[in-house]
Each structure stands twice: as structure tokens, then as C-alpha cells.
Amino acid sequence: MSLLLAIKNNKLRFTVYSLLSSLLFTFSFLPFGFFPLAYLGFIPLLFLEKECRNNASGTTLDVFIFSWLAFIGWNGGTIWWIWNASNGGAIAAVLINSFPMILPVLLLHLSGKKNNRANYNLFVFAWLAIEILQFNWDLAFPWLILGNVFSSFTNGVQWYEYTGILGGSFLILIVNTKLFKWIEQYKEGNFIGKELRLFNILFIYIFCPILGSYFILENFKDYKKNNAIKTANVLIVQPNIDPYSEKFNGIGYQEQLNKMFELAEKKLNAKTQLVVFPETALLGGLYEQELEQDYLIKSCKQFLSKHPGLMLLTGADTYRTFDPNDIKKPVTARFYPSVQQCIDAYNTALLLAENNPIQVYHKNKMVPGVERMPYPVVFGFLEQFAIDLGGTSGSLGADGESKVFDNKHHINIAPVICYESVFPDFFSSYKLKGADLYCIITNDGWWGNTPGFRQHLNYAKLRAIENRTPIVRCANTGISAFINDEGVITQQTDWWVPAVIESQVSMHAYNSFYGKNASMIHAICLFIFVLQVLKLGVQTKF
User: Fold this and answer.
1) Which CATH number applies to 230-506: 3.20.20.20, 3.40.50.150, 3.60.110.10, 3.30.450.20?
2) Is the pTM of this model over 0.70?
3) What is the pLDDT of residues 216-241, one digit of tens each?
4) 338, exposed or middle or buried, with CB in 10 Å at 0-12, 13-18, 19+?
């Protein structure tokens, strides 16, 4: 830091601060995955903020500009792979996702300017509030939640079963602010016992959580040894159908389905209870009022009839029609003059079993700009600009809540569709409804051989820990995997190859603290943030 202070040109020094911060965060996330760098990521920005606050070398505008540049660099360096699917989508994702990140730094700056002492607690809980916003608004993009950085070190965050991913974010924020204060006091030369205090920071906030993680995991293992479990024999089919050249316009829909049947037959046996196909495995306009008559559904039923007792969980592209005059029709239903009907499109999961009604679930957490235009009531006219990734683009319909499939095997299945797996609170809602087994169906082929699908896979490990539940992950082009309730991948496929894998999945009745109280934990964080804002308001006499 002394070398940086020696740089006389303020703007150049601020640029270096910004670049350092973006690099530290970028290299802490996958594919690099050196997570300890996240403990230092905010420190350059905290120095920048303090310099702009305490002397005439910078302004509030400098804090805004150079903080945003840092967050743009971090976002761009970590989610650049969106470019493979959409140039405009990548630029929009980086700019929009990085913008709210500026607010905590600006609030820190404001608190310091008004009171001559920065409120770092305000900074910490403002950041957590922004992360909670990323779970809930129409521009939601929780990909770079700070706690995701530990997806490369799941053994050290087994305590996520109590705090969820926000606990990891809180830890990173606290370590950054503590180390920054330590460096400041060290520079001032009046820091008594500086080595001991540094040791305390490292011991309390870094070593102790890792040690605690070990004991939590051992206790959980003891629970599993001493409590009854049930099992499910599951088979995952990864067809590896190219989403660009084959899936939507290159290979016939029946031919694609036949390919999945052939792969499944390679490992199907009398013990298999559940076969899982990926997201949008069934295409071609399946109308939900006539599902039983659809030719692809009939093919699935014929396949199931050959294997008594077997269930099939599959993704599908489905539709529902509504009368144009029906005042209860969804806002996402679009009028088609050719049929004089309003039609709503869905990204759907179906559970099929012989001689049983088809169970239907519609995806709720949509990819902004691809599956839903933000706030469609206001911005519905922008549908024509939605990013087209094949299938149905624009604002899709949704159920409004999670849903659990039940069946004669007494295995309660949580159907999680692609993007929904990065929303920890929504993910936990399935468990509250009795889910035994989570099945994530996805199609990550849009991004090509980039860090995108690896990040997505690793985030699922965190969901397994948060809810202490096994996860079956079926991806069209990979990586498909079985993940146990400790966040360990027990079996996986290779990327971009047809594959089929099977496993006996163990399930139990354990409900984690976070799984039961995710909403409460988020509410507490928001409450503390509001208190900090009110405190700032009182101190500044707003």
C-alpha cells in the first residue's frame, strides 16, 4: 500500500486500487477458485474511499466511478462466458449486476463524511441487503454472491447448514473490514500488539470457521449413522444435444427423445425407480390441456410401460391457452391473432409414471432478458428485444411458488429448473414442503466450454449443504452429477459427451436450521441494515 500512496497522480492511484480489487475477486472465484483472495478483495476500495473522504485528493464522484469500475472488472472477469450466448446479454449482465454493488461503498463514504468516522457495520449489512435484493427482484442475478466463493472449498463451510450462503458473505465482509482497520493502525505506528491482533483476526475469523465446519460435519455424519434413511435408485441421462445446431432446429423432437430412451436402456434395471432427463428435453409445443394426447408424452408412456414401477422426470417446453376476455389470464399470456387465443409459455418439469396423472411444475426463477423481461406489466412492450436462445423467449409464465412431486415410491421430489438452483431461499422452500430428493434439470450448453457450467455445478454443492439434502443434477451437455448431503460430488459425467450414470441415493428426514429459517435469516439481515440506515439518519439529522 505504501507503493500505491507514493503514486502522485490521484486518478492513476485510484485506478490501481480499482484494478486490484477486481483482480482479487476474479481470481477468488472459479475457474481459478483461490478463495482466500476474497478476504482481501474490498481492502483496496476501502483505502480509496478513505482517501477521498479524508483529504482533497478525491471526491464522492471518484468513489462512485472507481468502485463501479472495480465491480465491472470483477463481474466481467467472472461471468464473461455469457458472451458465448449473447454479446448484448453479457454487457447488460455485467453493467446491471455491478451497479447495485456501489451502494454499500457510497453509504460507507456518506457515513464517514457526515460523522468523521466511517460506519463499517453499515457497509457490511448494506452489502448483505444488496445480495438479498439479488434473490428477489426481477433483475435477479445471484451468481456473484460473495458466499459462492466457497464453492471450491465446501469442507470449510459445512456451517452453511445454519447460516446459508449469506453467512459466507458476512464472513468475507468482516475479515475485509478487520484487516483494513489493522493495516490502517499498523501504518499509523501506534498499534500496540499488532502481531497478536493480526493473529486474533486470522484465528477467529478464518481458522475457527474451518475448525467448526469439521465438527459440524462429524455431528451430521453421526446423525446419519443413528437415524433411518430411505433410498432411491436414480438414473441420469445426458443426451448431449447441441442447443445451437441440433436441439431446436437440427434434430427432430422424436429423434431426440429416442436418443434419450436408448441411453437410458443401457443402464436401466429392475431396481431403477427414477430416470431423469434434462431441461426442455421435450419440445414441439406441448399444450397442457392436451398433454395425454401429445405424441411425445405417448412415447414416454410407452417407454415406462416396458419398465413397471419406473418414473420419469423430464423438462419440457409447454403452453396453455386462455380466452382473450378472461380477466384472470396471466400478464405473460400473449395474444395470437391466428388462433384468436392468448397463449402462455412455460419452462416446465413433468413427472410421469404409468397409470398415474402427469404432475406439472413451471419454472419460477427466470433468467432476466431471456425468460422474462423485468416487470412485464410496465415493460411488456420490450418483449421483442428478448434474447432468443431457442425455444420460447420473452416473458414465460410461472407458478409463483415451488412444488414437490409425490409418487407411489414415497419419494418426494423437488423439481428445480436450471437458474433456480442459485437462489438459496427459494431452493430451501422445497424442503419445507417435504422434499426428500432435489433434481436439478438444466441445459448449460449455451455457454460452451467455459467456466459457466462449472460454476453452476459447484453452486449446487452449497445448496446440498444448506439443506442437508442429496441432489441429482441432469444437464443436457454436462456436467451431470450426483451430489450427496455433505456437498460432495460422488459421481459425475464428462462435459459434452452423451452419458448415462446411475446411483442409489440415500435420503433422510434431517431438516437444517437454514432450510427451516432462510426467510428469517434474510429478514434479520435486512432489519439490521434498516437500523444502521436510521442510525445514520439520526446522526446526520436527516
Assistant:
1) 3.60.110.10
2) yes
3) 999 999 999 999 789 999 999 999 99
4) exposed
